Amino acid sequence: MRSPAFAVRLPVLSALRLAPLGDVWHKPAFSSVVALLVVLGPLVAAGRLDLVLYGAAGAMCALYGHGLPYRARAGALAWVVAGMLAGVGIALVTAALTDAVAVRVAVAAVLAGLHKAVCDATRIGPPGNVVLTFLAASAAFVPQRLADVPLHVGVGVLGGVVAWAVGMAPWLVRRDGPERVAVARALEATARLLRARQDGTDGVREARHAAAAAVNAAWQTLLRAGAGREELRGLLVRAESGVSGGAGPEALRGWARELREGRPVPVPPAGDRSTAAAERAELAGIAAEESAGRGLRGLARDVAGRWRVVVMVFAGSAAAGWGSMAFGVGRPYWAVVTAASVFAASTAMSWSRAVQRVVGNLLGVALFTVLAPVTRLGAVALLVTVLALQFVTERAMTRNYWLGSVFVTPTAILMTQFAGTQPVPVLVADRWLDTCLGAMAGLVACVVLRDRRAAGRVHDGLERLERLVAEPRPAADRLRAALVGLREAADLAAGEWRGAALPEERIVAAERAGHRRLAELTAGPDGRR
């Protein structure tokens, strides 16, 4: 019998395998470049290179929220900007109050843990906590005077306003774009599952999990969009029924293509009466569940419940930073960022992320060495190089994290060079050392402090929901709480260490049954809600 803690394969070559190009990579790529150009262009033209890092902290928030409906994106981007500037502000105050490198590392490590916990709790999505941690950790090692902190944070606020506007701009063109993409992904994943079943290939199991995850992600997107979108919801329910033999793969792909091309939402042919009734019941149950939002208090509880993540990230990041300091690196923020970036959802995934980070960073440092002479021709050349690298980074990141790291590494190094250049050999040596120390410290912290109960809590929540669904007349509020609790437990386990894969299909099936049961409980005497 294998040990769930350590019986895990740690491949290297598969961690470096390239995936197909992502379907929406251009959105964060263009958004970040436009926001950076609008914010940094005037600063460079005015010769205020000392303010570039702070403006970039706000502008880089344009990377977030591109998978969210615009109703949810508006609030999410505002919170990302606020969180980014709060972290940078704390780091700047620390830099102004103390010259002790060990203290600055400790503060950066605490911020790294909080960034990870909050990003996991809010499910903000890529690029997650890494960008927040990089900019805050960088700010902790910038020479600073306390009197200058308000100005520097104010420049970041202006950058954040630009990022918010850029992120929300597509709403003017296609107001249901994110929902369309999410449903299209679910339809395409379901079509791949049906095709795998028809062909009898060995990939049925993987396709089944991918379809379950895509359908669940699409439901979350539609729920966050608020009321409306009935046609998209009906199409997604039909995608779920397609798994059990409804629509064929070609029909599902055709519907997905129409959604992506901006055509009117396709209307699938009507099914039999029992199928139609089941679909209406699930839609009604989902609408009832919408009233069970978490709110700020629920979010605070969720973040507090992730204390283990905070401790784990802090331990790895602090150890990496202090180790780098012991080796003579004066600004060991890159070791902190590398350690914070290693933490993933499972031991195998964290190992893969560490391999990808090391390979990508070392190649990225080599690329920086090649580009350094060009960037030192002047501020404009430096800005153009940073913008070009940022655009390529978003495209490469969808193929594999290591490939994206090849371009994000020189971007990050160059971002700190606006206020003053450093010798290239020193930068190269420091980044190589910081990368290796950070990856090693992060992995050690992951193994030592992993949460062995995360998957168990998911199974407990699943059994609780299934028992409620089977009861003759369960209380609606208990059923609603069980639905929300199961989803939160699954999301929490996805960010913690576990020894076994989560039963995604069973979770989706239980949620569907719960939605239908909730619809029955909330219906009026005439069958209407």
Automatic annotation (TrEMBL):
Q: Where, per UniProt, does this protein localize?
A: Membrane
Write down a Pfam family by its short name.
Answer: FUSC_2
InterPro entries per record: Memb_transporter_dom
Q: Name one GO cellular component term.
A: membrane
Instruction: Give the membrane topology.
Output: Multi-pass membrane protein
Q: Which residues cross the membrane?
A: 34-64, 76-95, 153-173, 363-389, 401-420, 432-449
**Keyword Membrane assigned:** yes
**Domain Integral membrane bound transporter: where?**
324-444
Keyword Nucleotide-binding among UniProt keywords:
no
Q: Quick one: where is this thing mainly located?
A: membrane
**UniProt keyword annotations, A-Z:** Membrane, Transmembrane, Transmembrane helix
Please state what the protein is called: Fusaric acid resistance protein-like
